[in-house]
Amino acid sequence: MKRGLPWSGEVDVISSDESSSSSSLDVEIQVNDGTTNVTIDQPPKELSSEGLLISSAEDYQEYMKQLPIPTHRGSMIPFTTWMGLGRSIKQLYGQPLHYLTNILLKQWDHSRIGSEEHSPLDIVIHPCKAEATVWLIEELHRQTSSYHHIAKLWQSDPMRHAFIDSIFPQL
Questions:
Q1: N- to C-terminal Cα distance for the chain?
Q2: How far is it, in rounded angstroms, from Cα 4 to Cα 35?
Q3: The dihedral of CA 53, 56, 61, 67: what is its sign?
Q4: What angle, rounded to 10 degrees, do the helices at 147-156 and 99-111 form?
Q5: Where are the alpha helices (DSSP H) in the chain?
Q6: Per-residue DSSP letters for 121-137?
Q7: What's the rounded Cα separation, in Å, for the pair 26 and 14?
Q8: Tens of pLDDT along 135-144?
Q9: 127-147: string of b/e by CB count within 10 Å (b at 16+)?
Q10: For residue 118, how many other CB atoms are within 10 A of its CB?
Q11: Which of 26, 27, 101, 109 could form a disulfide with 97 if both were Cys (CB 3.0 to 4.6 A apart)?
């Protein structure tokens, strides 16, 4: 389905790139038989992969800040690993955990290798304490993490998508 233009004339946009050090962009727009010069104060956005990664990290962090931490937590979640507890929390509360929280849970599981790694964690630490610990860390990550730091970590982590949850609750 084709849509018609709301006007009958042509529009020519001419960009002047004479001074690349300028912080504004001069654009000349020619409409029908008149000419209008417009100066845009913002420089054009750079679409580099680093810029896109920073923008994505900023959007991600802003979204995570908006998610409320559950206040009514009355269930005891059995778990054998920290990552298992994280999966159960996501399923029970229908919320994602922050990328940094997921990475931390993975590191905590790796730190158990060679010690009591085969005994369930809910025997070592009470399930309510463990869940409260995860939510405390989650709140810190949601409220205080820098999107620049997240983008830097994402840049060096080829498996970052495995630690970014795909749960998107309605705000």
A1: 35
A2: 23
A3: negative
A4: 60
A5: 49-66, 82-93, 99-111, 121-124, 127-144, 147-156
A6: HHHHS-HHHHHHHHHHH
A7: 9
A8: 999 999 999 9
A9: beebbeebbebbeebbeebeb
A10: 7
A11: 101
Q: How far apart are CA 69 and CA 98, in angstroms?
A: 12
Within a 10 A sphere around the Cβ of 60, how many other Cβ atoms? 19
Length of the chain equals 171
Which residues fall within 8 angstroms of residue 72, CB to CB, at 6 or more apart?
A: none
pLDDT tens digit sequence for 101-137: 999 999 999 998 877 667 788 888 999 999 999 999 9
Residue partners of 62: CB distance under 8 A and separation at least 6: 147
The residue written with tokens 């009958």 in the block is 8
